[in-house]
Structures are given as C-alpha cells and as structure tokens.
Fold:
Amino acid sequence: MWDYNKKVIEYFLHPVNAGEIENPDGVGEEGSLACGDMLKLTFKLGKDGRIADVKFKTFGCASAIASSSVMTEMVKGLTLEEASKITNKDIVDKLGGLPEQKMHCSVMGMEALQAAIANYRGGKAGKITEGKIVCTCFGVTDKEIEKVIIENDLNAVEQVTNFCKAGGGCGSCRGEIQMIIDKIRGKKEKGAATEAKPKKLTNLQKIQLIQRTISEQIRPLLKADGGDIDLIDVEGSKVIIAFRGMCSRCATAEFTLKDVVEARLHEFVSDDIIVEEQSE
Structure:
C-alpha cells in the first residue's frame, strides 16, 4: 500500500471541484484509460479575465485524484499567464509530497492545465502531443521526456518512469530514454568536458580515443536497447561506423547516429568529427 500523507488522503476522500463545466472556455485532457490514468479539466473565465471556475474528472488512483483536486484550487482566481506557470513541483509541494512512483500524477495535472489553456488560446481540445513517440506503451514523446528531466533534474530511467510512465511497459524504449537523459546532462556538463579534451591529437591518439569513447560512452547505451556498434574506419575527421543488432534496423538510427554517436565523439574527442554509417 502506498504511504500517502494526510493531505493527499483528504483530497482523495473529499475532492473539491470535481465534475465538468458546461460550455467551458478551455478544455484539456491528459492520459488515457488504457494507461490507467486519465484527466479532463474544464475552466471558465470571469469578466476580469481570471479563472472563475474550474472542474476536473479523473480516472485513476488516489494521488491522481488528489493532484487534480488540489491543482484546481491553486488556479482559481489566477490569470491564464499565472496559471500556465504552475509546475508539477508546485502541485506536489501543495500536497505535502507524493510517493516517488506516483509523481506522474502531478505531471498529468500540470499537462492537462496547459492543454486547457492552449485550447482557450486557439488550440484543439484534448492531449497536446509534440515530438516523436518514444514510449509506445504509454504514448510518451521525446519532448515530454525532455521536459520532465529538465524541470525535475532527473538522471535515471527509473525516475523518468516515475514522472511520466515512459519505460514502464515493455521496456524496449529504456535505452532511448537513457540517451535523452545523457544528451541533456551532457549539455549541462559540456563546459567541463570540453576543457578535458586534449588540445591536439596525433592520428593514432585520435583513433584510440574514438575507440575508447565508443567502448565506454556509446556501446553501453546501445546494448541497453538490444543494439551495438562497430568502428569501421577513420579517415581524417570522418568516422565510419556500422550499427548492429536492433540498431541496424531501428527507425531512429539517424537520431542515434547524430545525437548519440556523433555528439559523444564531439564531447570526448574533437568537435570537427563527422560520423557516417557504412554504406551497404
């Protein structure tokens, strides 16, 4: 059984603002019944342009209902600009905390609110989907994963799963989630990594460093998703590789080539490296 605090239990047992507004100004939906959680949020603006009324319908667990309920209290009386700045952290703080495995419920509340505001401003009602689907089990995109990583300072696949469910189904996307984590964290650490790169390399040193970077920084990521990589040749600044296993027939091979392989070699070897896949 989950260890909920008294505030979460109170909002679950006695939710406020439950229901649906007739002729709302904004409608937002997040989640899906297939995934186990779904939230529909509706709001009405007053003459002053502030949120006068807001209601929710949630299918889900205690933390999903509590998160939705407390969020509706938080946005009442706010302008849409003010409401759009509410984060899942704000929702969790207002509740006094949630179990780590239930953090995705606060994210669902935040995203439903953002979808409702977007709907009022001219977008279509329903779930906002941007980017490429990474987790097919739960329909989570790379943009959604990047957002929760950045806003909550996540550094592990298990944390990403807790916040947005990605990777919590069949697990085939966990390798790609790790790549996204590494890409984001790599940007934060780019300054220190750049200084650590050798100023000048001989051809032999460059090849050895490329081999080591592939072995230590790239291959483990690909193997986590059933793939692999071989270094075929080095011609000046051009590095020729071949993907193996699942990577050899993956639809995201181009993303992996540039955003993982080439990015890592830029980070640890040289900025002028161009990576190409071996032609068949």
Notes: Residues 102 and 162 are 6 Å apart (CA to CA). The chain has three domains: 6-120, 133-188, 197-277. The first helix runs from residue 6 to 13. The chain has a mean pLDDT of 85.
